[in-house]
Specification:
Elements: H1 17-26, E1 31-34, H2 37-47, E2 56-57, H3 60-69, E3 84-86, H4 88-91, E4 99-103, E5 109-119, H5 123-131, H6 139-146, E6 151-159, H7 175-185, E7 190-195, H8 201-214, E8 217-222, H9 234-244, E9 253-255, H10 266-279, E10 284-287, H11 308-320, E11 323-326, E12 330-333, E13 338-341, E14 353-354, H12 358-366, H13 378-387, E15 396-401, H14 408-422, E16 427-431, H15 432-438, H16 447-466, E17 470-474, H17 480-491, E18 495-501, H18 505-511, H19 516-521, E19 543-545, H20 552-565
Parallel strand pairs: 1-4, 7-8, 7-10, 8-9, 10-11, 15-17, 15-18, 16-17, 18-19
Antiparallel strand pairs: 2-6, 3-6, 4-5, 5-6, 12-13, 12-14
Helix pairs in contact: 5-6, 9-13, 10-11, 14-20, 16-17
């Protein structure tokens, strides 16, 4: 394999400055699409050559080729559908052959898309082929069905300007900036380390070994676009990387941030990461055990086998034009005070092998327990503790869901008073009726508007949680997908405790304090939950309480005991 190819510039989709100014002025008359965060990540890598050979968002033929056999219509290897999903309403305003302006969330124009295709994907097929299963436990499958728009728009991109990042600017490089840097330093062989987690001592040992094995320089290339819901935020992670960079030799190692929206697609994601790293001038890439795996499926099993990603990468390695360095599972051997590859320890039965999993690390942070020096660097632990103090000092959200009249508001009020009595953190009650009055007065009770209402509650609760307060929410929240969206918003910042108030429909109707059920039965309230509209009961709530035959105080006590068991309030 010739390694000089990694140093020549890669094609970009930007026009020059003068043309960009002209296009900006002309774009005022175009239909505009305000892009989602994930679409902005994709657009940036399309424009700067990170997704070379793609020239835009995939049209129907390319999309179908990628979904079915990881190939564009011209036969080039490409494993991931890079699509622009839009709403039904927006799609109706489009015509093939016309241009649309692509803007960021502030309305700043980033690119022009020349529409070549407007098509409806078979999302179940896409989930099955790309992610291995049409299973909503997979974050990307959930995104596909519950967040992404129903229509895809394909077409070539004309880049006007890159999205603006105000954070860690000196650490962000385009593929051509990295290639120029490698040329300048005379780096011919470069091994990329893909990561979405903070670096601990095992990772450092692994990267040292990988660079030695490939006889290559090292590029630490963490993803700072979108990773998996619940991951450590990228600000904390980058501070952790910067804290350990001086443990590496600066003449042989560099770090650059990659603004990629990960799909957690395991084997296909590994091939995709290889192509992206090749575009960034790398000749080798470290592929780990369960590379880019999303965790457990609905049956509680791993989505992908531990080495599926390495096998698919190896199969396509020559075409990717980036060699794989396979990840060894590194463990700490106490007697020798060093990290060694687990499968290379000959005297396994005579030595003490130590290892801390990601789950165990999170538990220790949550409970304020010791994290030993053999596992991580004190600087990294300090950063993690700053962002993840013990749970009893963090904000959290208690989210009650149940039918109208089930007793949610009554229990929520009791919990609020009990938590205020304890003191220590501000407590805010976001009750359904109060929210309707102050946040959502213009909304009706249609399914679409009820979803918007829950998302607003989730957003406010996430801000309260982020700032160390306690949010107590008590809406009906009948739909699983919307409750999940609220959970994902909140769990970035603290715990989300779902409490299903499982009072039966018969009991709620018997109580009918506000006379709503009688009106719904008489057909005076359309789409009423439990009568003419479904209530999707949670299957994985942290707690289920039933108010039939129990005092409010007893139900509130169950919630408090749960919060104590989760470490959210001190015993």
């Amino acid at each position: 394999m010739s390694f000089a190819a990694n140093l020549a510039p890669v094609p970009e989709l930007y026009v020059n400055y003068d043309s960009a100014q002209k296009l900006k002025a002309e774009a005022a008359d175009l239909v505009s699409w305000d892009m989602t965060p994930r679409q902005i990540c994709d657009l940036e890598l399309l424009m700067n050559g990170g997704f070379n050979p793609l020239k835009g968002f995939l049209g129907k033929d390319d999309y179908e080729g990628v979904v079915e056999n990881m190939r564009l219509a011209d036969g080039s290897l490409w494993p991931m559908p890079i699509t622009l999903d839009v709403t039904e309403k927006f799609a109706e305003t489009l015509e093939e052959g016309k241009d649309i302006a692509l803007r960021d969330q502030e309305g700043v124009i980033l690119a022009i898309l020349s529409v070549s295709d407007i098509y409806r994907p078979d999302k179940a097929r896409e989930a099955e082929k790309v992610f291995g299963a049409d299973d909503l436990a997979h974050p990307a499958v959930n995104y596909l069905h519950n967040i992404a728009g129903p229509v895809y728009v394909g077409g070539a991109i004309t880049g006007i300007q890159a999205p603006v990042h105000y954070d860690f600017r000196a650490r962000r490089d385009t593929p051509n900036e990295l290639r120029a840097y490698f040329r300048k330093l005379g780096w011919r062989r470069v091994v990329a380390f893909q990561t979405r987690n903070p670096l601990h001592r095992a990772h450092q040992e692994l990267t040292f070994r990988a660079a030695r094995e490939a006889q290559a320089n090292l590029l630490i290339h963490p993803v700072v676009g979108l990773t998996k819901p619940g991951d450590v935020d990228h600000f904390t992670r980058v501070r952790c990387y910067e804290a350990v960079l001086d443990k590496y030799q600066p003449s042989t190692t560099t770090m650059s941030l990659l603004n990629l929206a990960m799909r957690m697609a395991g084997p296909r994601e590994a091939v995709w990461h290889g192509l992206i790293r090749k575009n960034h001038g790398c000749t080798h890439m470290i592929v780990g055990r369960d590379h880019a795996g999303p965790g457990k499926n609905s049956a509680g099993e791993d989505f992908y086998g531990p080495y599926d990603a390495q096998e698919l990468f190896r199969e396509h390695q020559d075409e990717i034009a980036c060699e794989m360095v396979d990840f060894k599972h590194m463990v700490y051997v106490q007697e020798r005070a060093q990290y060694e590859p687990n499968d290379e320890i000959a005297d396994k039965n005579d030595v003490t092998i130590l290892n801390i999993s990601g789950t165990e690390l999170r538990r220790r942070l949550r409970e304020g327990l010791d994290i030993p020096d053999w596992f991580s660097f004190p600087e990294v632990v300090t950063e993690l503790r700053r962002t993840s103090p013990p749970r009893s000092q963090q904000g959290f959200t208690v989210f009650f869901t149940g039918l109208s009249g089930s007793g949610k508001s009554t229990i929520a009020n009791a919990i609020m008073v009990k938590l205020m009595e304890m003191g220590g953190r501000p407590v805010t009650l976001l009750d359904g009726d109060v929210v309707r009055k102050h946040l959502s007065s213009e909304l009706t009770f249609s399914k679409e508007h009820r979803d918007i209402n829950i998302k607003r509650i989730g957003y406010v609760a996430s801000e309260i949680t982020k700032n160390g307060g306690i949010a107590i929410c008590a809406p009906i929240a009948p739909y699983t997908a919307t409750r999940r969206a609220a959970r994902e918003m909140i769990e970035t910042y603290g715990a989300f405790v779902e409490v299903h108030v499982a009072t039966s429909l018969e009991e709620c109707e018997r109580r009918d304090r506000k006379g709503l059920y009688a009106m719904a039965r008489a057909g005076k309230i359309p789409e009423f939950t439990g009568i003419s509209d479904p209530y999707e009961a949670p299957t994985t709530a942290e707690l289920v309480v039933d108010t039939e035959g129990f005092e409010v105080d007893n139900c509130a006590q169950q919630v408090l005991l749960k919060l104590e068991a989760m470490g959210l309030i001190s015993g």
